Every structure is written in C-alpha cells, then in structure tokens.
Amino acid sequence: MTNSPIFDYLFAKYKELHANGQGETDEGCLLFMEMMHYAPPEYLAVANQVAEEMNLIPEPDSYTDDGTPLISLEALAKRHRLSMNEAGDMVERFMADRESLGLSNAGIVKDATNIHRKQ
C-alpha cells in the first residue's frame, strides 16, 4: 500500500492527538475527516469494513435516477437513535466541517426530486 505524504502526516498528527486523549475533540474529528479524505483505497476499504462490522452505516434505502445508492436521513437517524432534527443537524455540521477543510460535499443529495425508495 502506497500512502500519500499528506495522509501519512495527517495520520501521525491524529495518532498523536488520540494518544493524548484528544481524538474525539473538534480538532481530532476534523483531522480524522481530512485524513480519511487522503486515505489510500486499501485503508478506506478496511475502515468501511470496520464501520459495517460495528453496524454504523445503514443499508442504502433509496437510489438516484442513475442507480447510485443512497441512505436516507430517516435511516441514519434510526440507526444512531437520533431524532430527525438531530440527524439533520449532524449532516449539516458534517457538510460545514468538510467545506471548512476545502473538501467536496459531492454525493450528499438534498433535493429529493430524483430519489427513488427501494420497494
């Protein structure tokens, strides 16, 4: 696995924060988000597998016109035992954090016009 120097740097910084008990702070969460953006595909595959094993990500329950699978806000709220408002706030905060880091929010669909529910 070949890592980018950016990923290696961010990973080292995150490990340092985590070792100091600061991995769950706002700084730690932002650093983790940025680190994952630069993670090599092999690292992302393992992270996704762990997230699935921990049951963190609900199954896609809808799709776009081109067949792209989507997870509804309702499914996200249910999985994490949040109200719809809390889940909406969480997604908005996630998007704002990504934007503050200069990362794309592509893939987050807010217009339900072309979303189809699985039957």
Number of helices, where a helix is a run of at least 4 consecutive DSSP H or I residues: 5
Average pLDDT score: 91
- Residue share in helix: 40-55%
Low-pLDDT stretches: none
Shape: globular
Q: Determine the N-to-C terminus distance.
A: 40 Å
Short description:
The chain is mainly alpha-helical. The protein is built from five helices and three strands; from the N terminus they run αααββααβ.
Please give a structural write-up.
Strands 2-1-3 form a three-stranded antiparallel sheet, with no helix packed on it. The chain has five helices and three strands, in the order αααββααβ. It is 54% helix and 7% strand. The model has no long low-confidence stretch (mean pLDDT 91). A hairpin with a 4-residue loop joins strand 1 and strand 2 (69-70). With 119 residues, it is mostly helical. It has two domains: 1-57, no CATH class; 58-119, no CATH class. It has helices spanning 5-19, 26-37, 41-53, 73-79, 84-100, and strands at 62-64, 69-70, 115-117.
Break the fold down into its secondary structure elements and pairings:
Elements: H1 5-19, H2 26-37, H3 41-53, E1 62-64, E2 69-70, H4 73-79, H5 84-100, E3 115-117
Antiparallel strand pairs: 1-2, 1-3
Helix pairs in contact: 1-2, 4-5
